[in-house]
Amino acid sequence: MSKRQQRRIFVPTQSPQDWQRLLAEPEKHWKAGHSAHSLATCWEKANGVPPEIESLLSSHPDFQGTRIELVIALPELQTELPGGRAPSQTDLFAIAAVGDNRIALGVEGKVAEPFGETLGEWLVTPSSGKTERLGYLCSLLRLTTPLPEAIRYQLIHRTAVAVLEAKRFKIPNAALIVHSFSQQHLWFDDFAAWCHLFGSDPSIGQLVKLTELSGTSLYAGWAVGTV
Question: Per-residue pLDDT tens for 123-166?
Fold first, then answer.
């Protein structure tokens, strides 16, 4: 097992601080008021699905009128992808029960931090690995290429990971969830531009359906929380 690979055995947490050691750069990324700390604090406090996430899921007709419960939550889950030298590391991967159904959630915590490089910036230094990875992601998500260069690369692979993990756990629904702690809704426009590629027009607090992918229903949503 390479150093960068994550073990597949997980243990329960006792507090938000248990999330810190799982970060790619624990000292740099663990700061009060920043995304990693805010996300951990919110989910640990809720000890289940935070109310804003429950409200988001319940906003879609497919999940209205059902009880929503947390099955499991895995902070900083790493998922291997073709090409490149590093896995995609999701801030929080969670499985929620929605009545008799299940949905896999790829949760990205945000405060003031952007979604990283645009696709154009990511491709400034092209490589065979990047070409392989992007081709794989676009094929998985059934996106027509070339993609707009202004799209944030992070949104592409995080969405793909939600689908891959849903399939691995044999769950029919997957969703990319941005759990924002910015009351100014910073970077929502980037999220909206991503959803527009699927023909969906998102709004804050409303879950939208993006597409159907060979037995997996794909959704996306932007929830606003407080800590």
Answer: 999 899 999 999 999 999 999 999 999 999 999 999 999 999 99
Written as one string, the DSSP assignment of 14-40 is SSGGGGGGGSSSHHHH--TTSHHHHHH
Q: In this structure, is residue 216 part of a structural domain?
A: yes
The strand pair at 216-224 and 208-213 is best described as antiparallel
Could you give the CA distance from residue 164 to residue 198 in angstroms, rounded to a whole number? 18
For tokens 């248990």, the residue is 18
Tell me whether residue 167 is in a domain.
Answer: yes
In eight-state DSSP terms, residue 84 is: S
- At 210, which helix (H) or strand (E)? strand 208-213
Query: Contact 226/181 with Cβ under 8 angstroms?
Result: yes
Count of structural domains within the chain: 1
Chain-centre distance for alpha carbon 25: 19
0.70 exceeded by pTM: yes
CB 151 within 8 A of CB 118: yes
Q: Could you tell me whether strands 101-110 and 208-213 are parallel, antiparallel, or unpaired per DSSP bridges?
A: unpaired
In a domain, 76, yes or no: yes
Beta pairing partners, 74: 93
Check the CA dihedral 78-175-109-130 and report its sign.
positive
Q: How far apart are CA 7 and CA 9, in angstroms?
A: 6
